[in-house]
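Lecture notes, continued. The same structure-token format from the folding unit now serves as the input rather than the output. Read the line below as a description of shape only.
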């Protein structure tokens, strides 16, 4: 099974793309593991697989892009969820419905993918803001809190937060907000790079080296890295804005603590 080329990781400014359909399946015919990726799907919904995609699949803390696809005959497929296959490594599944049951894509069809640009921009702002928050917290408390480490993050607009190992007390909230405000105001450039293990070591970031085997990557492939110039670099497959100022005002909502983990939530206006 051929892996889907993730065009958005190489050019996130593309909001429309020509692609070729490689498979069309009804949701009812999917393997159980893949059906479970989008529980809201209806039995008569379909999954479309293409050779490449500009749709960011849900994952890495970022919501799925939505949008549509059209073929040269005008058949339309509305995309409501995108996920990485649970069965075929590297295959992207576009869940959705055809506008007309009689007009369904066929393998080999040339189609145009179009994403919802407004939602993509919102999700990109949230994702970059999450990296800004993570960098601010690390720079402020790394040497102040025993066992500190960055764990995971959600960049969903209704539940955006970064989680850290170690107990960050409430007194840090205003200090973190001030540092986040500084990073946003500095309009730091956000750049995409591709690193191997040696690049992580050369930048003193051995702690961030991803698990190549777990990601199904070959020894020749490089890891995608998002660099906020002047702050931090993180391995990341998501979409971002071009500079920190484009995040807009990033409000640190609250710090909650449980079982040795601190959760710093944030929101954008």
């Amino acid at each position: 099974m051929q892996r889907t080329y993730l065009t958005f990781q190489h050019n996130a400014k593309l909001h429309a793309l020509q692609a070729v359909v490689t498979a069309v399946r009804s949701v009812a015919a999917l393997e159980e593991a893949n059906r479970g990726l989008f529980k809201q799907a209806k039995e008569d919904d379909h999954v479309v697989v293409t050779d490449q995609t500009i749709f960011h699949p849900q994952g890495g803390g970022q919501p799925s892009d939505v949008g549509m696809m059209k073929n040269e005959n005008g058949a339309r497929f509305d995309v409501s969820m995108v996920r990485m296959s649970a069965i075929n490594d590297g295959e992207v599944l576009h869940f959705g419905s055809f506008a007309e049951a009689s007009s369904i894509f066929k393998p080999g069809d040339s189609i145009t993918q179009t994403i919802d640009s407004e939602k993509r921009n919102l999700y990109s702002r949230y994702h970059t803001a999450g990296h800004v928050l993570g960098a601010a917290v690390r720079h402020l408390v790394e040497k102040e809190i025993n066992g500190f480490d960055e764990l995971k993050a959600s960049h969903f607009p209704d539940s955006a937060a970064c989680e850290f190992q170690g107990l960050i007390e409430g007194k840090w909230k205003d200090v973190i907000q001030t540092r986040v405000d500084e990073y946003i105001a500095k309009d730091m450039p956000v750049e995409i790079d591709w690193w191997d293990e040696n690049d992580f070591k050369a930048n003193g970031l051995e702690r961030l080296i991803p698990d190549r085997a777990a990601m199904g990557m070959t020894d020749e492939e490089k890891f995608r890295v998002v660099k906020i110039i002047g702050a931090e670099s993180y391995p990341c497959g998501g979409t971002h804005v071009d500079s920190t100022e484009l995040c807009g005002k990033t409000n640190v909502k609250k710090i909650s603590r449980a079982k040795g983990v601190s959760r710093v939530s944030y929101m954008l206006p």
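Point for the exam: The chain is about 20% helix and 35% strand.
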